[in-house]
Design a protein that fits this description.
The protein has 124 residues and is mainly β. The chain is built from no helices and 11 strands. Strands 2, 4, 5, 6, 9, 10 and 11 form a 7-stranded mixed β-sheet that branches. Strands 1-3-8-7 form a 4-stranded antiparallel β-sheet, with no helix packed on it. It is globular.
């Protein structure tokens, strides 16, 4: 059984940092694609950053590379998302997802497994 558990969300002021973690069980993160998505209320989920296999190929949403960094912790089978210089527009629920195949990384419908989400709030 595949499970993804997100952690690390919280509330920060603009300019702050957070590190999200996606602990994965039942699925080897170096064997496929794991992606972080975010969702605003009433909106569809949008891909933020993805990491594929090992050595990893990285995907980033336009405009986020440089502030956000995705990485693997192979020993812990965990995918992390380091988020720096957070802004109010980054406020959303963040989800991690894993795919069995090789999907178009930004399409939520292409993923087979999802975590429950973690809330990120950026406000002064």
């Amino acid at each position: 059984q595949v499970q993804l558990v997100e952690s690390g969300g919280g509330s920060v002021q603009p300019g702050g940092t957070l590190r999200l973690s996606c602990q994965v069980s039942g699925y080897d993160i170096t064997s496929g694609l794991v992606t972080w998505f975010r969702q605003y209320p009433g909106k569809e989920r949008e891909a933020v950053a993805g990491i594929y296999k090992q050595p990893p190929f990285l995907y980033y949403r336009d405009g986020l590379k440089g502030r956000f960094t995705i990485s693997q912790d192979i020993a812990k089978n965990t995918v992390n998302l380091q988020m720096n210089d957070l802004q109010p527009e980054d406020t959303a629920t963040y989800y991690c997802a894993a795919a069995r195949g090789v999907p178009t990384w930004s399409r939520p419908s292409a993923y087979d497994y999802w975590g429950q989400g973690t809330q990120v709030t950026v406000s002064s």
